[in-house]
């Protein structure tokens, strides 16, 4: 097995989370009686380009099919994040009715709607038909397809090149990263800008965010690796911003390498130096991750067992992929330790979590059940969730997060979470 970027043979395991079903593959009641496919969830680190990556790749077309259960617009914090991004980009680059803004993996139009409202032409690209239908209802023209070099060539042949190409939380999702970035280079105008957001591998390691590892995430990225991947396709990273989203993300700004109008900022040089100083370009940095993961699992299981022995009620909040990774790695099956998970998305309510088969209900179930503890599985939005569910304090309820270590709290401001979208 070789690195998907540079071809180096992969021999160094980063994290082995056993065998799990795809984390966003929610189940219907009828599917509970059918066999459920599990895949290895083992990641490796390349000792040449330092790309951390899934070893066994489940086909993207099977993961991101016509119906997908993640809709970006159901997170208010993510909508606020998108709105602020559009305001910043409009002020910095002055897009107008003569511009074209494209977004790869545009989901339900959560972001492009704000450019559209300002009169800037937009084009969304997303492989999931149900999210594309919702985007169309917002006035966001959307192609139902994967963004690839092949599609980029078709767009260019049709006279569509981007002044701005947005790729938020998608680079990690593509099985062929070189093809994806090659498509970016083709579809971007000579003076165009591409921006990408992705969880920063530095934070994943430092905060033991192993639950962000799942089959839909083929790659786990540092700025050093991304800059190398881009350079191989004729693109240069000229700016970077550090964001609180997804437990700590990067927003990377890229341009054609031949475009000298956008000089490389000090922020890029400083972050590359910080990654090197942290040891991210050495194997030693990645080799103690697995024992820390096992400690988190032991703490979380002991908490659930202790509450069951004490006769306490525990429910989960958020049928998110990261929560499914945690539950499946912990070996939680059925409703013995966690009887129910609630979620705000109606597309998940009435279904069951993959692997654990825990039922998903509306958040109103919390008022009815009055649990002693609400485990916030998408810990990255725990501040938002704790604020929305602050009423559980009326009966003495408390919140729990498991990453990076077990944390029990009552007040929203006591949460250590970084506000970010559920994913």
UniProtKB/TrEMBL annotation:
Methyltransferase putative zinc binding domain boundaries: 3-64
Gene Ontology terms describing biological process: methylation
Single Gene Ontology MF annotation: methyltransferase activity
Pfam families linked: Methyltransf_13 (PF08421), Methyltransf_14 (PF08484), Methyltransf_23 (PF13489)
Keyword Iron-sulfur among record annotations: no
InterPro entries in alphabetical order: Methyltransf_Zn-bd_dom_put (IPR013630), Methyltransf_Zn-bd_dom_put_sf (IPR038576), MeTrfase_14 (IPR013691), SAM-dependent_MTases_sf (IPR029063)
Keywords: Methyltransferase, Transferase
Domain C-methyltransferase intervals: 244-404
Superkingdom, natural source: Bacteria
Name recorded for this polypeptide: SAM-dependent methyltransferase
Species this protein is from: Hymenobacter edaphi
Taxonomic classification: Bacteria, Pseudomonadati, Bacteroidota, Cytophagia, Cytophagales
């Amino acid at each position: 097995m070789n690195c998907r970027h540079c071809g180096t043979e992969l021999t160094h395991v980063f994290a082995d989370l056993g065998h799990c079903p795809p984390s966003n593959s929610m189940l219907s009641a009828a599917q509970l009686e059918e066999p459920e496919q599990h895949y290895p969830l083992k990641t490796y680190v390349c000792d040449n380009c330092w790309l951390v990556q899934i070893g066994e790749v489940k086909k993207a077309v099977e993961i991101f099919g016509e119906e997908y259960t993640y809709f970006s617009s159901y997170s208010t914090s993510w909508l606020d994040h998108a709105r602020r991004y559009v305001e910043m980009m409009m002020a910095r680059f002055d897009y107008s009715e003569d511009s074209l803004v494209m977004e790869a993996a545009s989901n339900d139009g959560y972001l492009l709607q704000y450019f559209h409202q300002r009169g800037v032409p937009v084009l969304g690209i997303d492989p999931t038909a149900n999210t594309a239908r919702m985007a169309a209802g917002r006035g966001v023209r959307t192609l139902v397809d994967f963004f690839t070099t092949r599609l980029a060539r078709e767009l260019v042949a049709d006279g569509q090149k981007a002044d701005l190409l947005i790729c938020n939380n998608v680079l990690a999702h593509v099985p062929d990263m070189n093809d994806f970035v090659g498509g970016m280079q083709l579809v971007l105008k000579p003076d165009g800008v591409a921006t990408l957001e992705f969880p920063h591998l530095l934070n994943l390691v430092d905060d033991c965010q192993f639950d962000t590892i799942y089959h839909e995430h083929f790659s786990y990225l540092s700025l050093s690796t991304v800059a190398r991947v881009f350079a191989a396709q004729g693109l240069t990273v000229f700016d970077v911003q550090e964001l609180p989203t997804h437990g700590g993300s990067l927003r990377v700004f890229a341009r054609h390498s031949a475009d000298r109008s956008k000089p490389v900022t000090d922020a890029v040089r400083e972050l590359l130096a910080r990654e090197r100083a942290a040891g991210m370009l050495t194997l030693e940095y990645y080799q103690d991750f697995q024992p820390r993961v096992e400690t988190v699992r032991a703490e979380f299981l002991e908490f659930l067992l202790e509450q069951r022995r004490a006769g306490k009620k525990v429910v989960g909040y958020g049928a998110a992929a990261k929560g499914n990774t945690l539950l499946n790695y912990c070996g939680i099956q059925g409703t013995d330790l966690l009887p129910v998970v609630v979620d705000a998305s109606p597309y998940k309510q009435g279904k069951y979590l993959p692997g654990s088969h825990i039922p998903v209900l509306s958040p109103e179930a919390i008022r009815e059940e009055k649990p002693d503890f609400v485990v916030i599985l998408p810990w990255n939005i725990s501040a938002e969730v704790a604020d929305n569910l602050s009423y559980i304090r009326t009966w003495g309820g408390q919140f729990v997060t498991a990453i990076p270590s077990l944390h029990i709290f009552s007040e929203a401001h006591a949460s250590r979470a970084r506000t970010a979208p559920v994913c």
